[in-house]
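Hi support team,

I'm opening this ticket because the web form for multi-chain structure prediction keeps timing out on my end. I have pasted the exact lines I submitted so you can reproduce it. The total is 656 residues across two entries, so I didn't expect it to be a heavy job. Is there a limit I'm missing, or should I split the entries? Thanks in advance, R.K.
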Amino acid sequence: MSIPKNYRWRKFVDQVMRGSTVVATGCAVIPLIAIIGYVLTLGGSALSTQFFTDVYQPPNMAQAAADGSTPAFDPNDPFAGIGVPDDGTAPADGTALESDVYAGGPVGGVLHGIIGTLIITGMGLLFALPIGIFAGIYLSEYRNERYATIVRFCCDVLSGSPSIVAGVVIYILVVIQSQQFSAIAGSLALMILMVPIVTRTTEEMLKLVPESMREAARGLGAPTWYSTFTVIIPAALPGIVTGVMLAFARGAGETAPLILTVLGSNVISTNLFAPMASLPLVAYRYTESPYPGENTLAWGAAFVLMMLVLVMNILVRVATRRRAGASR
Amino acid sequence: MAKQQHAESWSNGKSVFRHGDVPFRIGTVVLASCVVALVFAMGAIMFLSSSEARTAFGWDVLFGQVWNPVATELSEPEFGAWPAVRGTLLSSLVAIVIAAPLALGIGIFLAELCPPKLSTPLSFLVELLAAIPSVIYGVWGVFVFVPFFNQVFSTPVSETLGTYIPWLAGPVATGRGVMVTGIIMAIMILPTIASLTRDVLRLVPNTQREAMLSIGATRWETIWLAVVPYSRAGIIGAVMLGLGRALGETMAATLLIGNSQRISESLFAPATTAASLVANELTNSVSSLHESALITVAFALFGITLVLNLGARLMIWYVDRGMAGGRS
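Hello R.K., no limit was hit. The queue was backed up. Here is the completed structure from your submission:
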């Protein structure tokens, strides 16, 4: 038994390359853990009951409330309430800094954003559901038609196109025409993004229903439409619901189209035809803000969004695994 | 018993119910056509609304060097989005150069080397990366990654290597720039490429591996010489889909790239991307020409991602079909 000379080298290459795939996987898992960790710790520390029940407060208003001092904001003397002398220079000993607006803690909450996100995403989902579910039924029940391939490809185009494009289209169609940023425009933009998700999951879930069930229904004399609504959809319902939940989570996190359509707001608004607040917009705008208090709100909003996504994904995971187990 | 009643009620039912398949088919086809119509409508609306800028500047809207929306006494407004196009291409290039090899490694590990017990949770973790909303990557990038990367990589590299190589030159300043954006985008597109790569690798028939192992190849040689080449087209398709996502990424770019219209050689310098240009300026556009120029940019983005999607789907479809033929 002689071992070929280059065998050791080949073995070495084998182990190095196999090791490097492990390293590559680590490279994906490390940022994931870092992002989730930072959002959970920094975002979690921003949470309080006030965070969920209060709306946005401008930094100097909150500062005045914290001091117990009454003067909120005098436009003629903007430095009055915050301990800076009238000429705008800080005293040399630095005492003024203690009541500086920049030093304020977390102020206000994001209730306006939570309400706005629920309304905008919910409306978008309502628009997307009929198209998505019926297109999914078409793709599954008439799956061999040539037209189904075209629909499938258009679905892929929709889900692959940048989310800002949906915003631009609705901006042209709705915002320019109505001369008004509005929540309903945001819902329409989110609809464009949610339709492909609902369609493809509905299709996949309906395809999982065994062919024998379709045959049994047909054998009893049921037409296709009746068997679809009473046999096949009920069998696939848990899967379809998970698809709808994933679409909701995806829509709730979309920011780019909302910048162009909803614009954002700092107060609670339930008027569908006016600008509205939304969690991702809260996270985006307050990240750009120079006030640490608003930055903290941004972390908090990111935390709520992250929890939404994590919970939805884990629920879906559990639900689909149970389904897979049951069908076995 | 209940079933029998059901069947009886069917035979006694009106004929429109028994032959309801025609309306059912028409209904599903119409709603499925909404998906197709949406794609064409999006293209048509953006094409029509961009006509003003296209007739005024032609291809210069995309390749002109100067972007100056505001008319002054000294200069007419001019719209050339080359700084944005260049920023998009550069940041996506950085993203793909980092993400493609890593994702290939992850795909190989998940499909070929990973113990089955680890494979499911790891796949779930990697797919979770894809579900996190892009604005959270932006928030995390601004507050955590940019300062960290600035201190650990940008500043030292620009002070040493940067004095010789112009595209690594300083000043780093706030740290926002092409390189940072590219890295965050790489994290975002990793799961897209990795999970598709894993899927196409799993489609490779086992005979391929067995033949290679039986002539004495190591595990790595089997993977690299027999499995990966077999699914090459699918992997290229996955990378194209990832590239499409990076090109259209809006929120992370808007928050991290610095939004500067100045063209700089250095990767550490701020720049702008097509998507962030649209997100920043469309709602504040100063003239209808400005608006139409921005819509042209969005239209170009839509067109590019459509072509990339078409190519990627064709590649993946080709692999899928080829292997189905090989297995039978």
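A quick check on our side: Chain A touches chain B through 93 residues (CB under 8 Å). Let us know if the file doesn't open in your viewer.
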